[in-house]
Description:
Layout: E1 2-3, H1 5-11, E2 20-25, E3 31-37, H2 40-47, H3 56-64, E4 67-72, H4 76-90, E5 97-99, E6 106-110, E7 117-120, E8 128-131, H5 137-150, H6 162-166, H7 174-177, H8 191-205, H9 210-225, H10 229-249, E9 258-266, E10 270-279, E11 282-292, H11 299-313, E12 320-322, E13 335-337, H12 342-384, E14 392-401, E15 404-414, E16 417-418, E17 424-427, H13 436-453, E18 461-465, H14 468-481, E19 489-493, E20 498-500, E21 508-509, H15 515-549, H16 556-566, H17 569-574, H18 577-584, H19 586-596
Parallel strand pairs: 9-12, 12-13, 14-18, 18-19
Antiparallel strand pairs: 1-4, 2-3, 2-4, 5-11, 6-7, 6-8, 9-10, 10-11, 14-15, 15-16, 15-17, 19-20, 20-21
Amino acid sequence: MITGQRYAIQQVGQLPDEPGVYRFYSTEGTLIYVGKAKSLKKRVSSYFNKSANHSRKTLKLVSEIESLDVTLVNNEYDALLLENNLIKQYQPKYNILLKDDKSFPFLLITQERFPKLLAVRNRKKNAGTYYGPYASVKAMYSVKDLIHKLFTLRSCTLQLSQANIANNKFKVCLEYHIGNCKGPCEGLQSEEEYLREIQEVKNILSGRLSLPQNYLINKMNQAAEALQFELANQYKIRLELLDAFKSKSEIVNPSIGVLDVLTLVEHEKSAYLNFLQIENGSITSTYTFEAKKTLDETEEELFLQGLANLRNEGTSRAKEIITNVVVQTVFQDFTIIVPKIGDKKKLVELSLKNALYYKKEKISQADLGKQKEDRVLSTLQRDLQLKTLPKHIECFDNSNLQGSNPVASMVCFKMARPSKKDYRKFNIRTVDGPNDFASMTEIVGRRYKRMLEENEPLPDLIVIDGGKGQLSAACEALNSLGIYGKVPIIGIAKRLEEIYFPEDSYPIHIEKKSESLRLLQRLRDEAHRFAITFHRDKRSKASIQSALLDIPGIGEKTLEALLKEFKSVKKIKEADEESIATIVGKEKARLIKNELK
């Protein structure tokens, strides 16, 4: 790793002229940006080129770079995938943020004897083969229902091992008697026959509908030749169901084969991408997602980040990708094309229609949310008779258990929403014992002294969790800093939800159903939750340290050595016995693990 910005700039010239991934770190060692490059030397040096016409956001990124690290790869595609993996793992603040509204559903064919077909939302490694994602739960279940009508798949959770079946461990259930299952649990259906049907299910889920169609035709003809006309009619009904499904799902020429469609439309701070997976003229899966811009990324950069995510997830697998975005980057594993005419052009237009609809819905939701935020803040301003709209509110709370491990918290709401990056935790330094008033004076004083020193803008409203006493303690801190009266401050008491103002003898009451009171309650409850969580973690850490020191042979030096290696008590607890033994020896490691259990 290259450390120190000035030194980092000097070292840029030594970077190789090869493809790879670069990582920028802040002074705290936090990863703040991950990027890919065809030439690491040219790309990284461009950030430190004073003549470059960088945007304001990029200049801010460069000002925070303290160190950098690079990884060489074989080609641009490998760089794209590695970049995407690192962004998903570390979520650097200056990278594009990909967002889904929810976890999209998949259909899963399980990896076991006599596999099952399941609808799932979360993908697990080695669970089986996933198909999707499906943008519509209704569409997914319609496919699932069709498959269960066409083929007799089991729905039970029995472990159908050869030994269990041979020992007659199971009995057929109602599903067998009503014709939905052929009874593999009693050996009434062979694994070979069952897997043939599973293969046809995979063909349907992959969009290869002609294969299960031929399978059902052959089954129907075999039944007819054997004079099993009732069975032949059942296969005929299934064929009709499959034909109806095929006519609905087939939207373009079946000769198109396998390809992926990914289109993009931009807005001010976001881009919206729609993905369609096409096989033999049918859409086999689709979903739409949002990419948040952070550094005024180009259309191509936004597109490639979304594509990398799809390729990493295994959702996009085709050798040909069609889009509306002109991409200069060339990849060996697949081609990216902007079609001008024909069926492929129609598919791009269909995908764009989905992306535009998603964009419209998102903007509409954001507008409604902003209207609500403005309404709530205006109501709060009126109820508390504030001079300005309280866009930035901070709320304080204390937490201790009979004076042990006293801590405090501050939570911040901006535009009526939690701004978690601005939350703060406080260890009480100057107060002994359970003194909530003195603790409140300390933490409020520390918070705003630092903000004044760093020229940070003060909040529009300060909320204290507590009544007259806690509020007076907070006002004392503001007075000592010379900002009392410059920032509105109130206290909210839990019992009757009374609102206290400084120097007023009597509290006011806001209408119980008022949106402004609900906002204050959310602030108070969030500050309380944050303080309690911090206190619980600190108490747990202290108790574990105390328990470790009570073990014979474990002293301060041993604990110090463990903390130096594992960095925290939590990681000591998570470490295996062998790892601990490398620091303190086998006997002590065994004692420590037994105590932690």
